[in-house]
Amino acid sequence: MSRLTAFPIEDYRAHQVEIDRAVGEVLRGGWYVLGGEVAAFEEEFAAFVGAKQAVGVANGTDAIELVLRALEIGVGDRVVVPSHTAVASASAVIRVGAEPVFVDVDGVTKTICPERLEELLGSEMGRGVKAVLAVHIYGHPCEMEALEAVCGRHGVTLLEDCAQSHGAVYRGRNAGSMARAAAFSFYPTKNLGAVGDGGAITTSDEALAERIKVLRQYGWVGRYVSDFEGINSRLDELQAAILRVKLRTLPERLAKRRMLAGVYEEMLAGVDVVERPEVRADCVHGWHLYVVRSAEREALMAHLSGLGIPVAVHYPVPIHLQPGYVKYAERSPALPVTEALSREVLSLPMHPYLDEAGLAEVVAGVRSFEEGRAAK
């Protein structure tokens, strides 16, 4: 019998008593939107990240949009994003009326390549760029010092997309604390997941935080009167209460993810059909996903799926090649590394409720594929 349990339900089971109690208290309290639970979670999450402020919002996509709105980035402006990421990173840019400009990543960490960003911002394609969204993909921190230097030389604002990087650390700095502002998602599968949608923005720019708080609720400064064109994007009390419960145990679950990544590293040593992920020096990976590369990805994925091993591809089609976004590729540079990754990346099971026996089952499946190939 497979030991590869599903993450969101196991996460609930692990916290069930505390979550049920917290939800009951909210329901009995009768205040369900932007109340005490949200305020407490914002304070606790800001402390976890190491930022002065956290602002709870409805989801991670809204978090990016609200940051851009608060920075007055919109029609006529351009924002650099990687194409090797979830489409939400680019869709939020379009929602404020700005245009995404795609940049290539490096093939090892899969994060924005500083050299390619420098080339882009120094070229004609860099005209009109107001911000760069650094996506800590899969939980691996971007090369933030190099990105900060590039953005500084070109007068561009650096932002973080931390949807997959809760608990990641770059040279002593936590993901979400290194740029002007950062966007988090609490989708149920994230390292810190709600039971539904949720998101947050972290920043140490307190004036920016206050503007975001206004924008997330219709632009109200006083109730029912909009001083700005805001939106409705509020983290509800139930999700905040659930997130507060899970936040208390997040450090130990992050430690378990790191341990499991180490087990994969050891077990996959000598397996040639996959290339194991590497971690940049002086960084702590968040291990939201454990992603390998394989030139035989499609066949390997079919083999593992046939064994009942849940694998996935993050992401099979780069944003710039998707029908809804291909027009933006015309004003972006070539992305050869991104396109190669889309053909080769494969996500193996990874969450803190797995054990070494479960990982051994996965690795045995990979090895049986390799052995079958060798026998042909």
Characterization of this structure:
The longest helix has 31 residues. Helix 7 links the parallel strand 4 and strand 5. The protein is of the alpha/beta class and 376 residues long. It has two domains: 239 residues, 3-Layer(aba) Sandwich (Aspartate Aminotransferase, domain 2); 126 residues, Aspartate Aminotransferase, domain 1 (Alpha-Beta Complex). A seven-stranded mixed beta sheet has the order 1-9-8-5-4-2-3, sandwiched between helices. The chain has a three-stranded antiparallel beta sheet with strand order 7-6-12, with no helix packed on it. Strands 10-11 form a two-stranded antiparallel ribbon. Helix content is 41%, strand content 15%. The protein starts with 6 loop residues before the first helix and ends with a helix.
Features:
376 residues, alpha/beta, Aspartate Aminotransferase, domain 2, Aspartate Aminotransferase, domain 1, seven-stranded mixed beta sheet, 12 helices, 41% helix, globular
